[in-house]
Design a protein that fits this description.
It contains 74 helices and five strands. The chain is mainly α and about 1550 residues long. The strands form two sheets. A three-stranded antiparallel β-sheet has the order 3-4-5. A two-stranded antiparallel ribbon has the order 1-2. A hairpin with an 8-residue loop joins strand 3 and strand 4. The longest helix is centred in the N-terminal third of the chain and has 36 residues.
């Protein structure tokens, strides 16, 4: 209330004061447009008087308001403290009163139709601003918001914008931004078709906008201006007025350079590799799209290249096409599954993909290879399905079910979109494939959803099947019959739904399906349908029946039970299983993969449900007869289908294993664990880690109550070993941190007692850190150290120095600080001798068992004693088996470790020759004759023991001897490899092959099996049935570890070559051969760099062992296969550029979707798709070359840098993507070549010493423009390759950028062109830094400022400082804020004034301080502050000089000299008196109005008059230099002008 009253009073006083001073008589009003008189001193005095009066009015009003507020506060007392926050402060009072007073002045100004009086009011406003009586922002806002500011009021329009132009320098940058937006809004009021007399209106506004846009004036950051312009006018069109279009367009275009420096080259054509764990990929954030528009999530409103601003459906479709991509799809479009948010864009692209798949499948069908089985054998076994055949429909089905299940898409809407897209086409090839996709979802969901949801499917079928004649019944011996009958199956389901819901269907069955319907009816009434069994021709009628009637229980139950019974077997017939007294139910032939592929998802779910229910019943009944081999094999095949994950692999891990374990039916548990590690190729990492935790939990429970404890414990240990070694590099960190440090599952992924498993876990973690390059990041270091501490609390251990040298630094440093105690060999020798004497001296059996079975708690030496017993007597006493039985399998591990150390000690001290042979024979007997320690367990322990120096050599020597000298293992390996194939999904006779091997080489598990043979076990002894494993398969992951340990010590590399030559054939059965070879070459790159022979031997062992089962060209190029065929000593090979070009072309073609590799069944492959396969085999081949990494990487780069002319038009970006991928996946010595090429680029003459003949750096790095003009693209391609590399890069590779900038780039930086290139390199990745490694943004930004400072000191003229500064503003407002203000403030203060002025808003530098610092050695001419330049009319010339003294008490004197040429003043009439007194102060203001209005022409009478020699002097005291300079400018511009 007080403020309102004060404001009203202020408005009244101001209005009275102005009205009084502007009052004139009739004669003055009549002559005002006819005469111009020189300004007199009296006029200036009147202006000063008015301004002083107004200042007094404002001061009094503010003081009165503050006093009144204080009085109210004292009256209210302390009881109203809560309302204090709403009371205005002193500044608020002043602002409100200023707004009221200024608003009155502006209103008076708006009413003036006389230019001279208007100018007087304008001078008053300007003076009040310059004297700091009122805020410049308040004046500008009041002018722009006045309702009379319209083009029709030309005097007010011109005067208002003239005032704004003069005082806007006193407004802060936020106020200037607001003023700019209001000016743009006012520009809309200007008429589109301008008359000549209206041009001055546009010019007045244009001058203000031009001043705001002036980079040298630095009124606000240009970054803010372009942001506002692009928000208001995103299409660069519909500018507020055409007269401003060039100004606005030019300003936006100037930011294209900054946008170019912040854009990844060729980004729309870059494509990722989709892995099984794609959502854990380190570079996943680089690919994120907006879920609504599918556009890149670019930061800031900048004029980016149109390609970057467009939707990117191609990227999403590319990912959708890849098998196992659904998790990555959700991550890329940034959708949370739990939120169940519908994504229209995803729906649209899935429709596009379905239509494309229809066409692709039809082409495959017409080419004669359409069968998903490529034919089928007589026994129903299937061949591998290529990744470009109708199997893609199964992938689409999985996507459809997954996305609809999580409500990311709408099924009815998707079908309607398909209908709209297909109804315009005349023919519909591949329509059966589309129906097959739809029936997968429909059959399983139709019972749970409304009938109306499926009506669009009927409309779609009418469009796709318009024929009037019935379709023929398909050949039911061909698996494609399921696809051909899928439309009829859909109709059957919909009709059944309508019947169940009592809905009348408006349509009769289309005649095209008459034959199909009759055929299904005949099948439904056939009581006995044949199954596909061994030796019979294929028959898929039962598949057609269950597909059509899966929602009709009358027909479905009988058929599904027939399928289930065929694999479950019955109690009447049993078959033997490997082991002692092991039998299983008699069914041995599983359902073929072709038959399973021909079943709908609903049928598969029912089949899986029946199988799991049967297993649970068997577990509850504790049947002595094992599960049928056909049941386990079929169950494993069903678990590969991702569309039934919830009832498949998820239920298996979460429920089934737990139920079986609680039932203590070890035979079933053993079978399920075997099935998982030998048959399941792809499962989400969370399930594998969960299984690992479950196994550790099971192993920790006491199992000594069962006689089968040794076998089940070995199985658990083998499964855990495979789970750990099978972790992908990008899976390790998220998986282990998730399960190792959660409060409810703490340490479950870490074994509490198995040192070997924990050591393998550490090795896996080291490999993952190395390959992903995360060793240097603090996040990985932190979780890694915490994880290792937990490991050490359970199983303290150390590593040899040759192993520590291979570890990432964070692990090496940890083990150097946390040293665990080591076994003293001398003490061990004495202890064994002492215990052996006790053994021979003790006679009481119970005492012996009690003493030696409890040794594991103190000194586990019993196996050392057994070694000496067999060495001395060639036999094992029966009481020793009882001791081993009491020890148990868990505690036996400690004895095995001691035995390994003891063996090293014995072999080291042996006399050689016969002694070594005797030792080997003794250990061979312990392993193969007495079955005390399995070979795989002993080798694992030996390989992981910590041995240094000569002891390490002896340890590796023992491993080699035990593996190769005896024939037992070699014979088994040769037999198994010769007689078996790893392609289990193609076989129906695995049981026969498996049994044959175990009959020839039966396995026994000590001590139970020996005791059973000796007849000392009371009950009938029975081992656990073995379904899949044998000693060869169990030894394979151990062989992986042995090879790695041998690689760590270069002295034993020759021994390793021998092992590979003898046992390498076993890699035929490795489930991830290429991945293993990739990890080996990557992790041990520095060990293998100078060992080309060993690299070649590894390739031969791992890849060439697959040649019997893989077609030629499945992995290696022809050139490399020829290299492998050379003699062993011929290792020199330096392939030319054509070799690397062919290798890259293969990867490019694969990612384009072309068929490059032979057909592959990806469901049973180590990789998810052809792209991942192509990338890995290419990297393996590059790392296996007998060339230095630098040479290889340079050749890869040269494929583009030297051979880009040979690349097909339009594919350069795809080759950039491929080479960037390869470098990303190669070890550090390879990708560091990118850094070398960047340095080489920066040191080129056109950047390090630019001249007039060179292209500017922005053109030189514009890849699109260079391609269109066929110019040299070397520099642009170098930057593009760096962009591609960093776009795909892991955290470790990506995080090296700040270090690279500091250590290598900054020392050579001398020119502005180099700095521009540097901004092009790192600018696009600030967004990724911000989301993944936030602190790195600060490091990169600081380095950019340091680089700018160095260039500023080195260069005289800066040509590109505006775009560089724009990039720095982008970084501030999008990423860093004020976080690094203190770090860069000193740098900015050391820059040249032009840069300081542009960057002053980053550190809030004052313009005065910049000018004072810059002008300390120069005289100030013109205005004393950074105001707008003087404007002269076309008929006058004004020269002003302002001198200011340093004393604040001195006055400022302005001398103005005006020279006007022209004739004498012509007057009409004979009136006397002085013109100045007649016209008053308004007359003296005409010149200023002309200046404000850019040459406004007033009056309608043609006159010419001139005044020469007029000199005006006035003075007034002001409080600051800025106020004095503003006033001087005001008084200078009030000289008269001639009018006509």
């Amino acid at each position: 209330m007080v403020i309102s009253e004060s404001a009203t009073m202020t408005e009244t006083k101001v209005n009275e004061l102005l009205m009084d001073i502007l009052k004139v008589d009739a004669l003055q009003e009549a002559l005002i447009n006819l005469l111009v008189v020189p300004k007199s001193e009296k006029d200036s005095t009147r202006l000063n008087t008015v301004c002083e009066d107004l200042q007094h009015v404002f001061s009094e009003a503010i003081d009165a308001a503050n006093t009144a507020n204080a009085g109210q506060d004292s009256q209210q007392g302390g009881g109203q403290k809560g309302s204090e926050t709403s009371k205005p402060t002193g500044n608020d009072v002043a602002v409100r009163l200023q707004e009221a007073g200024v608003g009155t002045i502006v209103s008076v100004l708006a009413r003036q139709d006389n230019p001279y009086r208007a100018q007087f009011v304008a001078s008053t406003l300007t003076h009040l601003t310059s004297s700091n009586t009122v805020s410049a922002k308040v004046v500008c806002i009041s002018l722009l918001t006045n309702e009379n500011l319209i083009p029709d009021h030309d005097i007010f329009w011109v005067t208002a914008f003239g005032i704004i132009k003069k005082i806007i320098t006193g407004v802060d940058y936020k106020g200037v931004r607001e003023i700019m937006k209001m000016c743009l809004d006012r520009a809309r009021q200007l008429p589109t078709n301008l008359r000549r007399s209206q041009l001055h209106l546009v010019d007045a506004l244009y001058d203000v906008m031009n001043l705001i846009f002036d980079r040298n004036a630095s009124l606000l950051p240009g970054y803010f201006i372009v942001n506002e312009l692009l928000k208001l006018f995103p299409d660069y069109k519909q500018w507020p007025h055409w007269k401003l279009a060039s100004l606005l367009t030019d300003f936006v275009d100037k930011f294209r350079r900054a946008a170019q420096m912040l854009s990844i080259m060729a980004r729309p054509k870059l494509r990722p590799i989709v892995e099984h764990t794609g959502h854990n990929s380190p570079s996943i954030t680089s690919w994120k799209l907006d879920p609504v528009t599918l556009k890149f999530q670019l930061k800031g409103a900048l004029p980016y290249n149109p390609e970057l601003l467009e939707p990117q459906p191609g990227l999403l479709r590319y990912i959708l096409r890849q098998p196992y991509s659904r998790e990555m799809v959700c991550t890329v479009i940034d959708i949370q599954k739990k939120q169940k948010q519908r994504c229209i864009a995803l729906e649209e692209q899935l429709v596009e993909l379905m239509v494309t798949a229809m066409e692709d499948c039809s082409r495959v069908d017409s080419s004669g290879s359409g069968s998903s089985t490529n034919g089928s054998s007589g026994n129903g076994s299937s061949s591998a399905s290529p990744d470009h055949n109708p199997c893609s429909c199964a992938h689409l089905s999985s996507l459809l079910i997954y996305f609809v299940l999580f409500q990311l898409i709408s099924f009815p809407s998707l079908v309607l979109r398909l209908h709209e897209k297909l109804k315009a086409k005349s023919n519909h090839p591949g329509r059966d494939h589309l129906m097959w996709v739809l029936v997968q979802f429909l059959s399983g969901s139709i019972q749970k959803n409304q009938f109306s949801d499926f009506l669009p499917v009927l409309r779609l079928i009418e469009v796709l099947y318009p024929e009037k004649e019935p379709l023929p019944v398909p050949d039911y011996t061909d698996p494609r019959c399921a696809l051909q009958m899928s439309a009829m199956c859909i109709l059957v389901h919909i009709l059944k739904k309508a019947q169940a819901d009592n809905v009348k269907t408006p349509r009769s069955l289309p005649p095209v399906f008459k034959n199909h319907h009759e055929f299904l009816q005949s099948l439904a009434h056939n009581p006995q349908l044949p199954l596909i069994t061994a030796g019979t021709p294929p028959d898929y009628r039962i598949a057609l029946l269950v597909n059509a009637y899966s929602t009709n229980q009358e027909y479905f139950q009988r058929s599904i039970l027939t399928l289930s019974d065929s694999i479950q077997g019955n109690q009447k017939s049993t078959v033997p299983m490997p082991g002692i007294n092991c039998v299983a139910l008699g069914s041995t032939s599983p359902l073929s993969i072709t038959l399973l592929d021909a079943l709908t998802v609903h049928v598969k779910m029912s089949l899986v449900h029946n199988i799991t229910q049967h297993i649970q019943k068997q577990a509850q009944h504790k049947s002595g007869v094992a599960l049928a081999p056909a049941l386990i094999e079929t169950y494993a095949r069903l678990l590969v289908y991702t569309e039934i994950e919830s009832i498949g692999i998820k239920h298996f891990i979460n429920s089934l294993l737990t139920v079986v374990f609680k039932s203590h039916v070890w035979s079933i548990l053993h079978a399920l664990l075997e099935m998982f590690i030998h048959r399941i190729h792809h499962s989400p990492p969370q399930y594998r880690i969960q299984l690992l935790s479950t196994i550790h939990h099971m192993a920790a429970l006491p199992l000594n109550t069962t006689t089968q404890m040794t076998q089940i414990h070995l199985c658990m240990e083998s499964v855990a070993l495979r789970l750990i070694t099978g972790l992908g590099n990008s899976e390790v960190m998220p998986s282990l941190t998730r399960y190792a440090f959660c409060s409810d599952t703490k340490s479950n992924s870490i074994s509490t007692d198995s040192e070997e498993l924990n050591r393998v876990l550490v090795l896996t973690m080291a490999r993952a850190l190395h390959v992903t390059g995360c060793d240097g990041s603090s996040d990985s270091a932190r979780w890694c150290v915490d994880f290792l501490k937990t490991v050490m609390t359970h199983t303290p251990h150390t590593w040899a120095n040759h192993t520590l040298q291979c570890f990432p630094s964070v692990i090496t440093e940890f083990y150097q600080q946390y040293a665990a105690p080591r076994e003293n060999m001398h003490t061990l020798k004495k202890a064994v001798e002492e215990e052996y004497r006790k053994w021979k001296s003790m006679s009481n059996e119970s005492d012996i068992i009690a003493h030696f079975s409890l040794q594991h708690n103190t000194s586990p030496l019993f196996l050392c004693l057994l070694f000496k017993m067999v060495l001395d007597t060639d036999r094992v006493p029966s009481i020793a088996y009882k001791v081993l039985e009491r020890v148990g399998p868990r505690q036996l591990a400690a004895h095995v470790r001691t035995l390994c150390d003891f063996l090293v000690l014995e072999f080291s001290n042996s006399a050689g020759g016969q002694h070594v042979t005797k030792y080997v024979e003794t250990m061979n007997a312990i392993i193969w004759v007495y079955n005390i320690v399995p070979i795989d367990r002993l080798m694992l322990c030996l390989a992981l023991r910590t041995q240094e120096g000569s002891e390490a050599h002896v340890c590796f020597f023992i491993i080699q001897l035990l593996l190769l000298k005896p024939a037992e293992l070699r014979n088994r390996v040769q037999e198994f490899v010769k007689e078996n194939s790893p392609d289990h999904w193609r076989q129906n006779n695995w049981y026969e092959k498996h049994m044959a091997f175990h009959r020839k080489y039966p396995e026994k598990f000590s001590p139970e099996s020996i005791l059973a043979e000796q007849g000392t076990l009371t009950a009938q002894y029975q081992t656990l049935p073995i379904y899949f494993s044998n000693v060869c398969l169990r030894f394979l992951p151990v062989l992986d570890i042995i090879i790695h340990r041998f690689l760590e010590l270069h002295q034993v590399h020759k021994n390793l070559e021998t092992i590979l030559e003898r046992l390498g054939m076993l890699y035929k059965f490795h489930d991830r051969p290429i991945t293993y070879l990739y990890n080996t070459f990557h992790y041990y790159e520095n060990k293998l760099r100078e060992r080309p022979n060993l690299k070649r031997r590894l390739v031969v062992a791992v890849i060439m062992s697959q040649q019997e089962i893989r077609p030629q060209g499945w992995a290696l190029t022809e050139a490399y296969r020829q290299y492998l065929a050379r003699p062993p000593d011929d290792i020199v090979w330096n392939p030319g550029l054509s070799y690397y070009t062919a290798l890259v072309r293969r990867l490019v073609n694969t990612m384009q979707g072309k068929s490059v590799f032979p057909s592959t069944e990806w469901r049973f492959n180590e990789f998810a798709n052809s792209g991942a396969h192509a990338l890995h085999v290419s990297c393996v081949e590059l790392m296996a070359l007998p060339s230095n990494p630098t040479i290889v990487a340079n050749k890869l780069m040269d494929v583009l840098l030297k051979g880009y002319c040979d690349i097909p038009a339009g594919e350069v970006e795809e080759w950039v993507n491929a080479i960037g991928l390869l470098l990303t996946w190669l070890p550090e010595p390879y990708w560091l070549v990118i850094h070398d090429h960047i340095i080489e680029l920066l040191q080129k003459p056109n950047l390090s010493a630019p001249g007039p003949g060179y292209l500017d750096p922005f053109t030189m790095l514009n890849l699109e423009q260079l391609q269109s003009t066929m110019s040299d693209m070397t520099a642009a391609l170098t930057v593009a390759l760096a962009h591609s590399f960093w776009h795909h890069a892991s955290f470790g590779q990506f995080g090296r950028i700040p270090q690279f900038m500091q250590e290598r780039v900054r020392p050579i930086l001398t020119t502005e062109e180099q700095l521009v290139v540097l901004c092009h390199l790192v600018g696009p990745f600030l967004q990724r830094f911000s989301s993944e490694l936030a602190r790195k943004v600060f490091d990169v930004t600081i380095e950019l400022y340091e680089a700018l400072a160095k260039v500023d000191r080195s260069v005289t003229d800066l040509k590109y400082m505006d775009p560089i500064c724009d990039v720095l503003y982008h970084i501030k407002y999008m990423f860093t804020g004020d976080s690094i203000k203190t770090d860069v403030e000193g740098v900015i203060r050391g820059l040249r004034p032009a840069l300081q002025r542009r960057l002053r808003f980053i550190t809030h530098l004052n313009l005065d301080s910049i000018e004072n610092a810059a002008g300390s050695n120069t005289n100030t001419s013109g205005t004393a502050s950074n105001t707008a330049a003087n404007t002269c009319s076309s008929t006058s010339s004004t020269t002003s000089t302002v001198n200011s003294s340093s004393s604040s008490s001195n006055t400022t004197t302005t001398n103005t000299t005006v020279n006007l040429t022209g004739s004498n003043v012509a007057q009409s009439g004979s009136g006397g008196g002085t013109t100045g007194s007649v016209l008053g102060s308004a007359g003296s203001s005409l010149g200023a109005l002309n200046n404000l209005g850019s040459g406004v022409i007033h009056g309608s009478v043609n006159q010419e008059f001139g005044v020469s020699g007029v000199s005006t002097s006035s003075g007034m005291a002001v409080g600051s230099l800025a106020a004095a300079s503003s006033l001087a400018s005001l008084l200078r511009d009030t000289s008269p002008v001639s009018t006509s």
